[in-house]
Amino acid sequence: SNSLTGTPWTNLLRVLFLGVSTLASFSLAQLELHVPTGLTTLEVVEGGEVVLPAWYTMTGEVPSSNPWEVPVLIWFLEQEGKELNQVLAYINGAVSSKPGVSLVHSMPTRNVSLRLEAVHEKDAGTYRCSVNVQDSLGTSATSMGHSSKSIELKVLIPPALPSCSLQGIPRVGSNVTLNCKSPRNKPTAQYQWEKMGSSPQIFFAPTLDAIHGTLKLTNLSKSMSGVYVCKAHNKVGVAQCNMTLEVITESNAAVVAGAIVGTVVGLVLLAGLVLLYQRRSKALEELANDIKEDAIAPRTLPWTKGSDTISKNGTLSSVTSARALRSSQAPPPRPGAFTPTPSLSSQALSSPRMPRTDAPHPQPVSLNPGGVSSSALTRMGAVPVMVPAQTQVGSLV
């Protein structure tokens, strides 16, 4: 019996007791998932970053950064009219997630907060965190509980740059409406109109419609001319546009209308002149083509049958030397007689020297070649050349 009460047996019994007590406490532990008290909705500006806080505990256990259990974690996104979308999962020690989605703390840990970066409007919705814990001390995993919590995320959008416009003609005594509209904003933007000047003028209802961004100005006067600024604003931003209102009198209106009408008429006339010019050019071109196709070449002038200077095929020999020989003997042309002007070769042959005469100037040379024979011209080195056609008035063609 003394041997049973020895120190080794006492230590063994103590270890067995502590182990059973620990297992009993583990089996009694219950999983509970938490979010900050009263937090059901989070808001973030588009393009920003947000953290959805969540953590879990085991009932009767002190929260630990290094838990003994093996958690299975899944974050879902629920959106109206769409299927459930898994954005992050931690299963079997591995994390998988959508772009821009991550856990704030590395697993394993009981803090399962979710981080979203570069948030867009499409990321808005209800995020649900689901945790399932298994006991890792035994030979087989045993589920020790499941819990889930939800947080709604709203994505806010500052007003986009609005556009300003004028409805109506700003004449003295008339009514106009100034319009202002921002194409994108969330929550819905409110609008405010203001007239700039040394003492800015702010408008209120019923002149101003802050929901639709309209400003109605009635019974206009010249003093109402100026720069008007519209501001679109919501809880996360503001944007503005401006326009200049110039109230005109009746005379100015007539001048403006006349200028507009004159401009339109001028443009119409200019277009007509351009069209007329194009048609005229086309007609002249067609007429010229017709004339070229229908024209008949003029007949060659009759020459003296005995002429050795003019060849049968219509060529003219070089008559430079002949002209020099007959210059003092050629009779003057008869009044009204037709004297053609032949084309001479570019290189005239040198003629024999002739005795000088007392005549003051040589008389015009008659092209009647009767005085020079063909053989003489050949010996003198005359070269046949082409005779251009002539019109009835004697000009070369």
UniProtKB/TrEMBL annotation:
<dbReference type="InterPro" id="IPR013783">
    <property type="entry name" value="Ig-like_fold"/>
</dbReference>
<dbReference type="Pfam" id="PF13927">
    <property type="entry name" value="Ig_3"/>
</dbReference>
<dbReference type="InterPro" id="IPR003599">
    <property type="entry name" value="Ig_sub"/>
</dbReference>
<dbReference type="GO" id="GO:0007156">
    <property type="term" value="P:homophilic cell adhesion via plasma membrane adhesion molecules"/>
</dbReference>
<dbReference type="GO" id="GO:0005923">
    <property type="term" value="C:bicellular tight junction"/>
</dbReference>
<feature type="signal peptide">
    <location>
        <begin position="1"/>
        <end position="29"/>
    </location>
</feature>
<keyword id="KW-1015">Disulfide bond</keyword>
<feature type="domain" description="Ig-like">
    <location>
        <begin position="159"/>
        <end position="246"/>
    </location>
</feature>
<feature type="transmembrane region" description="Helical">
    <location>
        <begin position="253"/>
        <end position="277"/>
    </location>
</feature>
<dbReference type="GO" id="GO:0005912">
    <property type="term" value="C:adherens junction"/>
</dbReference>
<dbReference type="InterPro" id="IPR042757">
    <property type="entry name" value="ESAM"/>
</dbReference>
<dbReference type="Pfam" id="PF07686">
    <property type="entry name" value="V-set"/>
</dbReference>
<keyword id="KW-0472">Membrane</keyword>
<feature type="region of interest" description="Disordered">
    <location>
        <begin position="322"/>
        <end position="372"/>
    </location>
</feature>
<feature type="domain" description="Ig-like">
    <location>
        <begin position="36"/>
        <end position="152"/>
    </location>
</feature>
<dbReference type="InterPro" id="IPR007110">
    <property type="entry name" value="Ig-like_dom"/>
</dbReference>
<dbReference type="GO" id="GO:0030833">
    <property type="term" value="P:regulation of actin filament polymerization"/>
</dbReference>
<dbReference type="GO" id="GO:0070830">
    <property type="term" value="P:bicellular tight junction assembly"/>
</dbReference>
<dbReference type="GO" id="GO:0032991">
    <property type="term" value="C:protein-containing complex"/>
</dbReference>
<dbReference type="InterPro" id="IPR003598">
    <property type="entry name" value="Ig_sub2"/>
</dbReference>
<dbReference type="GO" id="GO:0008104">
    <property type="term" value="P:intracellular protein localization"/>
</dbReference>
<dbReference type="InterPro" id="IPR036179">
    <property type="entry name" value="Ig-like_dom_sf"/>
</dbReference>
<keyword id="KW-0812">Transmembrane</keyword>
<dbReference type="GO" id="GO:0005886">
    <property type="term" value="C:plasma membrane"/>
</dbReference>
<keyword id="KW-0732">Signal</keyword>
<dbReference type="InterPro" id="IPR013106">
    <property type="entry name" value="Ig_V-set"/>
</dbReference>
<dbReference type="GO" id="GO:0098632">
    <property type="term" value="F:cell-cell adhesion mediator activity"/>
</dbReference>
<protein>
    <submittedName>
        <fullName>Endothelial cell-specific adhesion molecule</fullName>
    </submittedName>
</protein>
<keyword id="KW-0393">Immunoglobulin domain</keyword>
<keyword id="KW-1133">Transmembrane helix</keyword>
